[in-house]
Structures are given as structure tokens and as C-alpha cells.
Amino acid sequence: MAEVQLLGFWYSPFTQRVAWALKIKQIKYKYIEVDQDKTNPLLLQHNPIYKQVPVLIHNDKAICGSMVILEYISETFDQGTSILPEDTHDRALARFWANYLHNKMKTVSNAFLGKGKVQEKSKGEVCEMLKILDKELKGKEFFVANEFGFADIVANMVGFWLGVYQEVSGVELVTKKKFPFFCVWRDEYVKCSQVKEHLPSRDKLIAFYQAFARPQAAASASTQGISILIGP
């Protein structure tokens, strides 16, 4: 058995953020795709409570939830580039922005892929988030200390997946006119070497979400469907 294993969905920003951290830290690991199957024996064995990915298995012990896993990786493995700043204030800022972005992920998903009142409410909340980010990211390449790290890894939803959701859904919330500084940051984000080499195929993601959205469109808003999309 590999010392480090990652259970995940290839299209999940939660899984991808953990994979990025492992690669940045130069940690060798075995990736196991479990797709949407919540009856997968490995998933039930290692995350019986939530039955969700990502799950990191290190020396036969499971760590669940992407934010917890990122902290674990940072604290456990010394090799490679640090994903949290050395300065304690910068480290606190990184955690603040990472948690802010993480807590908005379901809202972002609902704004583009939800239905009815849930979608409309989420659209407003996403626009408020974008106003905050537009102000915060003015003139910045990275969130904290001018270095790619923890908050930037967690920002993969707004930096990349949000654009995919917008194209698939036809819901246009992000424009250069409304949020110019956020858009400059986003365009540079996907070109950044730490990001670009680890991103999944945009075309493949769009095809996946288009296929997912078709049956969803024929039904009422599905909380389960959204949770499968975004993970923990």
C-alpha cells in the first residue's frame, strides 16, 4: 500500500486543491478515483460519516475534508515549498481568506447551477463576494505575502471553476466592467505556473457539467446534486 493515497473526484475543486498541495510539497501519492459512488468500499471505510471526498490516507490513517487535509499536509510534511507563510500574521491572513472562500463555495455553485429562489439569493451573495474580492485583489497576484499558498489553493473555485460554471449555465455574473480587478487577478491566476500545470482540462470539465446539468434541468433543485458537484 502506498504511504499516501488520495481518494477523489477528478472534477471536484476540493479534490484538486488537495492534489495541488501534495504536488507543491513534492509528496508522492497514489490517486484513486471514486467518482460519485458513495457505496465505494474505500470511501465507506475511511469516511463513513460524510461519505465524501477528498480523503487523504497516510500510513493507513484517514484525514477527511479538504481544509483539514491542507492543514495536515502543511504540518506533517517538511519537503517542498511551504503552503503557509512563515510570518504568523500572514499565516492568519491566509487562513482567514481560505476560510472565507471555502465557506462561499456552495453559494457559488448554487448561483450558477441551482434553481428558483435558492439560485436568485445565491446570485446576490456571489455578487457581494465579488465586490469584496475585487477590492482585496486590486494590484495583487496572490492573496497573502506576494506568494502562492494556502488561500490561493482554496481560491481555485473562484479562479477557475466559477468560469466553467458561468459558461455551462449561461448565468453571467462576472464581467470585466463590473469587477475589473478580480478579472485581472483571475486571468493571471490561471496562467500562474503553480496553477496552470495542475488544472484539469477546461473542455472536459465543461462537457461533464453540461451532461450533469441536463437531467438537473428537468427536475427541481436538488441539494444532493449540488453536494455531489462541490464536495466537502
Description of the structure:
The protein is α+β, with helices and mostly antiparallel strands. It is built from twelve helices and four strands. It has a four-stranded mixed β-sheet. A hairpin with a 2-residue loop joins strand 3 and strand 4. Helix 5 crosses helix 12, helix 6 crosses helix 9 and helix 8 packs across helix 11. It is globular and about 50 Å long. The C terminus is likely disordered.
Fraction in beta strands: 5-15%
C-alpha Rg (nearest Å): 17 Å
Strand order of the largest sheet: 2-1-3-4
Shape: globular
Helix content: 55-70%
User: End-to-end span in angstroms?
Assistant: 25 Å
Low-pLDDT segments, ≥5 res: 220-230
Largest sheet: 4 strands, mixed
- Average pLDDT works out at 91
How many individual helices?
Answer: 12
The H-and-E topology, N to C, reads as EHEHEEHHHHHHHHHH
Annotation, overall tally of beta strands: 4
SS content category:
alpha+beta
